[in-house]
Amino acid sequence: MFELANVFKAIYTWLEGLFANWGIPQFWLDLISMLLVFVVIIAFISLAALFLVWWERKVSAHMQVRFGPMRTGWHGWRQTVIDAIKLIMKEDIIPAKVDKAVFVIAPIVVFVSALMVYVCIPFGKGLIVSDLNIGILYILAITTFTVVGLLMAGWGSNNKYSMLGGLRSAAQIVSYEVPLTLSVLGVVLLAQSLSMVKIVTAQAHIWQWYIFRQPVGFFVYLTAAVAEVNRTPFDIPEAEQELVAGYNTEYSGMKFAMFFFAEYANLFTVSAVVTTLFLGGWNGPWLPSWIWFFIKTFFVILIIMWFRWTYPRMRVDQLMDFAWKFLLPLAFLNLILTGLFA
Amino acid sequence: MSDYPKNKFPIDEFPTDETDGTDKNKPSNLFNLLGKDADTIAVTGGSEEFIVNMGPQHPSTHGVCRLLLRMDGEVIVDLVPIVGYLHRALEKIAENRTYLQFIPYTDRIDYVTAMICNHGFCMALEKLAGIQVPERAEYIRVIMDELNRIASHLIWLGTFALDLGAITPFLYCFREREKILDLFEMTCGQRMTFNYMRVGGVSRDLPEQFIPLAKEFVEYFKPRVDEYEYILTQNPIFLGRTKGVGILPQKTAIDYSVTGPNLRATGLKWDLRKEEPYSIYDRFEFDIPTGTNSDTWDRYMVRIQEMRQANRIVEQALNSIPEGEIKTKTPAVFKPPAGEVYVRVESTRGEMGFFIVSKGDTIPYRVKLRTASFSNLAVLPEMVRGWKIADLVVIFASLDVIMPDVDR
Fold first, then answer.
1. What is the pLDDT of residues A222-248, one digit of tens each?
2. Mean pLDDT over each residue of chain A, to the nearest integer
3. Are B351 and B369 in contact (CB under 8 A)?
């Protein structure tokens, strides 16, 4: 079948030949190929985030008996592009009394940590930037880094509401990481490896998919992941009705756009990890592997979006209760049973 | 505040004016802080507490309401609602308008339930002048009132769910409301501020398509309420945020003159349509839903049930509406005899009262509007002490307070 990995291999071989002919050392070949991969990944994330924003608006609209963007292009597909251009053109307001360095760097931290995860996402057979043998551990570690960015945003805004929002979101993310990690451990025990590629290849047939062997793990991971991405019902840090926009309040223009896109990039990441860990990654009959990956990831994204537009919001202490008193014991139980019987 | 009678009302417990917040045993009077700048407010907050100003522009204060909160971390210690941002001096304006000219102003007292406000004002004048309203007009008035009740509760339900984070029911409610507004527009040309009722009846007859379309709406609406309940009522997240939250003891409610669904949720079965039946409400069969725990969930359930009951009333009225005149003849220039009258109607938020003093002139001497939301808002501090900001939003939404009703 048409495998994208072959395309990349062909380009690399061509470049190798070219550089060897011109007598350029290996170092430059590595550097250029890394830069090319970097550009491809950034382009992909931008496109994915753009698409997801439009997709969310359409999904939410149809669930709410309305149409969503319809005028900018066919069914409004150009809407996000136009919004991005608008945000770039906006005046970059830095309020007078903020801590300038922290205020400016916070969105960068959040955006960078959202990007760095893509090193280990297996988009298809042979389509992973770097198959680290600690793949899933790397992903979990990098997603934690977002907390630092949010705290910086809350603190740097010099605003009571933003402070509250930043603190709340930090507490929420840190609490939900524990059941998240434990549910991942169940999969790791079954696959006997932390490497993302090995986890996918261990699910080669549909009856081997870990969603059937670890249903509790799937449920815990999905719930904790929705909390990690700050989406309803866990979107207290962005709860409009209470804190205006939480840690986001003082940001406008491109900085706000960075937070916004980081959120959607995270959404894609989290769904991609669910696909890899529980739904068999790129495995599937007679379509190319990367198409299967996208179908499964978008299915998970659709479910997460469905949650947002159906459920009301949990209060912050109820959120914490739910993480520590329900999800965590459940994840432990799952781990024990997996360890005993797998 | 110095000439305000002390110890006569429960809200008089706030401390005297001599404190400034540096003594922890005497918390600073929040009223002292009105009109002070932000730096002073930040300093006088006391040790761990800080003072937050919520509003007047805020996504979840329903209308322009300013709430001054004293908070200890996330918990609310005290609250003062500061109103007046929507004060339009309607009562003073009434002293310079003829009775007919004032009817559009009554729409704007509570623009979400404009029909009921119209109705109350016209009823007061009819009582003052001793005018009888024809049968058909009474039926039309009841149909419009109850349809307006459903529309108002739909707005309330949509914004209540929105404050909780469930964004979708808002649009479902407005979809239903569009149908009701189509009915109104077909009759009087307006969707929100109707100016429909007159002294002695209503201004225009129902068009031909009204009754069939209204009957269609009544049938269409019955499963819709079930749909809203399906999304929200048994949802654990919703229950977690509303059960046991913001309890209003019945005695406090009565002391503060809380009326309407808020009072019924405390367990007291008090509805003016049954207690002092006005218009032709005594001909219709409907129940008065009450609550048991007087928490936010009960206030929610009472309003959901009220929507069903209002639908029932509309159905009965549509089936038995007679033909006839829609307005008794009144003189072109309406001059009621001298005297005073107080008439109250059951608005969607509670008791809406009109006190009119007439000196026999074409313009009233004094019109006093007793609005339900004013008293309902006054009880808010009693309900939120000890709860968090997230609960404040929910409790405030459950009171169904409309700011033009408060400020007039």
1. 999 888 887 767 776 665 545 545 666
2. 84
3. no
The verdict on residue A269 lying in a domain is: yes
Per residue in B66-99, pLDDT (tens digit) is: 888 877 767 888 888 888 888 999 999 999 999 9
**How many residues belong to chain A?**
342
Query: End-to-end distance of chain A based on CA atoms, in angstroms?
Result: 34
Query: Is B171 part of the contact surface with chain A (CB cutoff 8 Å)?
Result: yes
Task: Tell me: do B118 and B73 sit in the same domain.
Answer: no
| Residue A56 in contact with partner chain B when CB distance is under 8 A | no
Q: Tens digits of per-residue pLDDT, A187-232?
A: 899 888 888 888 888 888 888 888 888 889 999 999 998 888 877 6
Name the residue among B109, B138, B191 with its Cα closest to residue B374: B109
Residue B202, domain CATH:
1.10.645.10
Mean pLDDT of A253-280: 87
Inter-chain CB proximity B389 and A242 less than 8 Å:
yes
Q: Which of B39, B54, B171, B296 to mutate to test the interface with A (most CBs of A within 10 A)?
A: B171
Residues of A in contact with B50 (CB under 8 A): 160
Question: Does A241 contact B168 at a Cβ distance shorter than 8 Å?
Answer: no
> What pLDDT score does A309 carry?
85
Check CB contact under 8 Å for B172 and A65: yes
pLDDT band for position B25 (cuts 50, 70, 90): low
Q: Are residues B20 and B114 in the same domain?
A: no
% of chain B residues with pLDDT over 70: 87
Q: Is B164 on the interface with A (CB under 8 A)?
A: yes
Same domain, yes or no: B156 and B36: no
**Structural domain containing residue A141:** 91-341
The answer on B103 and B181 residing in a single domain is yes
Write out chain A residues lying below 8 Å of B396, CB-based. none
Burial B85-112 (b: 16+ CB within 10 A, else e): bbeeebbeebeebebbebbebbbbbbeb
Q: Inform me whether the C-beta atom of residue B179 falls under 8 Å from chain A C-beta atoms.
A: no
Taking only the tens place, the pLDDT of each residue in B243-264 is 888 888 989 899 989 999 999 9
From the list A164, A310, A318, the residue facing B240 with the nearest CB is A318
More confident residue, A126 or B339: B339
- Does residue B3 form part of some domain? no
* Residue A9 located in a structural domain: no
**Chain A residue with minimum CA distance to B169:** A64
- pLDDT at A331 exceeding the cut of 80: yes
Residue with tokens 């729409």, as numbered in its chain: B107
What would the DSSP string read from start to end of B261-274? HHHHHTT----HHH
| Domain limits for position B55 | 10-82
User: Residue B303: pLDDT above 90?
Assistant: yes
Locate B173 and state its tokens.
């409610």
Q: Give A117-143 pLDDT, tens digit per residue.
A: 888 888 888 788 888 888 899 999 998
A311 vs B52, B162, B166: nearest CB:
B166
| Interface probe with A: pick from B389, B391, B392, most Cβ of A within 10 Å | B389
* B161 neighbourhood in chain A, CB within 8 Å: 312
CB nearest B241 (choices: A241, A309, A312): A312
- Whether B147 and B61 share a structural domain: no
| Ordered DSSP codes for B61-80 | SSSS-EEEEEEETTEEEEEE
Number of domain units in chain A: 1
Phi, psi at B293, each rounded to 5°: -100, -10
Q: In Å, how far are A85, A212, A216 from A180, measured between CA atoms? A: 36, 18, 12
Domains identified in chain B, total number: 2
The whole-angstrom separation of Cα B310 and Cα B134 is 22
**Do B73 and B15 share a domain, yes or no?**
yes
Check CB contact under 8 Å for A315 and B393. no
Same domain, B162 and B39: no
State which residue of chain B sits closest to A168, comparing Cα positions. Answer: B74
Beta-carbon-side half-sphere exposure of residue A96 (alpha carbons within 13 Å): 0
pLDDT at B305: 92
| Most A-contacting residue of B62, B67, B154, B167 (CB-CB within 10 A), to test interface | B167
